[in-house]
Amino acid sequence: MTLPAGLTPGIWTLDMSHSEIGFSVRHAGISKVRGRFREATGEAHVRDSLADSSLHATVSTASFDSGDANRDAHVRGEDFFDVEKFPDMSFKGTHLEGDGEDYTLTGDLTIKGITKPVELEVEFTGVAVDPFGATRAGFSAEAEISRKEFGLTWNAALEAGGLLVSDKVKINLEAALVKQQ
Q1: What pTM was estimated for this model as a whole?
Q2: Per-residue pLDDT tens for 46-90?
Q3: Is there a contact between 121 and 104 (Cβ–Cβ < 8 Å)?
């Protein structure tokens, strides 16, 4: 599988100051709550062929931020991420297919010590050299997971029926990677 235009072999690292790792989940069946993780590391080893390339990323669960201090404390606690026991979650790419701008990246997502395969729909958004001489590559990605499959089972019944937190979680990524010299 050939490399997208402008993407060259080498080591590319995640630039979190220009990236966002976020998600949304339905709350009370009527609205979506969004959150993001502020701390993560990632590294892509791009080879001459994308089929031979690799990707690994680690996210600090304690960096979860939804904009609400009470909710953030609950989500970081034992009911959800249990950051004391599981300080990180990770993703390791295992297979990539597609071309041009659109790809499907399959990989192993680990949350709370549980690893499951996940497919990310990835859009390659291009390569640019910034004013400081750094070569950057951009990617957008989306996936949908079942939080229960990763041991995130806490919930509360609603008086009118249904549950407070949806099982379905949509993951949204905007990633900027910088080529290392």
Answers
A1: 0.92
A2: 999 888 999 999 999 999 999 999 999 999 999 999 999 999 999
A3: yes
What is d(CA 93, CA 108) in angstroms, rounded to the nearest whole number?
6
Q: Which two tokens stand for residue 134?
A: 């750094």
Nearest residue to 76 (alpha-carbon basis) of 169, 152, 22 = 152
Q: Identify residue 34 by its one-letter amino acid code.
A: R
**CA 55 to each of CA 12, 13, 14, 90, 105: distance values in angstroms, whole numbers, following the listed order:** 9, 10, 10, 11, 10
- Nearest by Cα to 97 from 119, 118, 116: 119
Rounded distance between C-alpha atoms, residue 141 and residue 118, angstroms: 12
Neighbours of 120 (CB within 10 A): 22
The predicted-structure confidence for 137-174, as pLDDT tens digits, reads as follows 999 999 999 999 999 998 889 888 887 888 999 999 99
Residue 31, pLDDT score? 87
103 bridge partner residues: 98, 122
Residue holding tokens 């291009």?
A: 126
Q: Within 10 A of 4 (CB to CB), how many other CB atoms are there?
A: 19
Cα–Cα distance measured from residue 36 to residue 34, given in angstroms and rounded to the nearest whole number = 7
The CA dihedral of 1, 143, 128, 48, to the nearest 10 degrees, is -20
Q: Answer for the pair 109, 120: CB distance below 8 angstroms, yes or no.
A: no
Q: How far apart are the first and last CA of the chain?
A: 24
